Amino acid sequence: MKIGLDIMGGDYAPKAAVLGAIEACKTLSAGQKLVLIGDRDIAVTILQENNFSPDNFEFVHTTEVITMGEHPTKAIVQKPDSSIAVGFKMLKENSIQAFSSAGNTGAMLVGAMFSVKTIPGVIRPAMTTIVPKLKGGLGIILDVGANADCKPDMLVQFGVLGSLLAESVYNIPNPRIALMNIGEEEEKGNLLAQATYPLMRDSKLFNFVGNIEGRDLFEDNNDVVVCDGFTGNVILKLAESFYVITLKKRLKDEFFDRFNYEQYGGSPILGVNAPVVVGHGISSPEAIKNMVLLSKNMIETNLIDKIKQAFQ
């Protein structure tokens, strides 16, 4: 198993990425190898400064970097030797089995769809994030930003993707799928929610439990929450602020500690033909480590094959 990591992506790259790679490397089994994609010379210097042998990794040297502010499609085309473009080329050729980056999210989405492509039957890939639950454990919300505008059949597919992720990677049996809305009743919501509800209710592909409201997100009556990417991204950014606020207010609380993005590593792009994980732009070494381990779990649980089977 070879796991590709873009070491040039993220606000604190390449140092944070390489330090995270060191920590991830310590947890990998024999036969599992991290492939560091980026400026080899800088990476080797950081490894040597931390007394960690470069021999623990494979390196693919690249000369270009896609920055956070660049237009995703133009950057992928105009910078073929960027760490993201090279990573996706390797993923397409199966010289790595998963690819992760804390770099430009748009470039990661475009790269995934251009290279390994969407699984046949999937209308649009979705991005997910983890939601801590008040009584312990976790839930999943999707989409959190890949698709600001959605159609009802896309949300139904998000239910399928989220259900498979919850069951395969997070070991949640028969996950309960809920639709984010402004009321619990079937007829509530905007046109999208109203049109989606009957499709999800009648689907045999997952365990639909109805509408939930924003206040139910952290409760134990759902495992996977489905929404369009605009709504999901607003929820994600709001939830991320909880942890920051507790730090500023010097509050110590076990529940709010679990809003620390570092624990979860990153957001999988679900619905493409290989494991792809996008990390937070501000990813620390701990977050990078967990992003790599999430990639590994997606390979080990055969998540992509399970998604392919569901959409046959």
From TrEMBL:
Natural source organism: Mucilaginibacter gilvus
Stored Pfam families: FA_synthesis (PF02504)
Entry superkingdom: Bacteria
Family statement: Belongs to the PlsX family.
Example of a GO biological process term: phospholipid biosynthetic process
Oligomeric and partner information: Homodimer. Probably interacts with PlsY.
Protein name (Swiss-Prot/TrEMBL): Phosphate acyltransferase
EC number(s) from the headed UniProt entry: 2.3.1.274
Gene encoding the protein: plsX
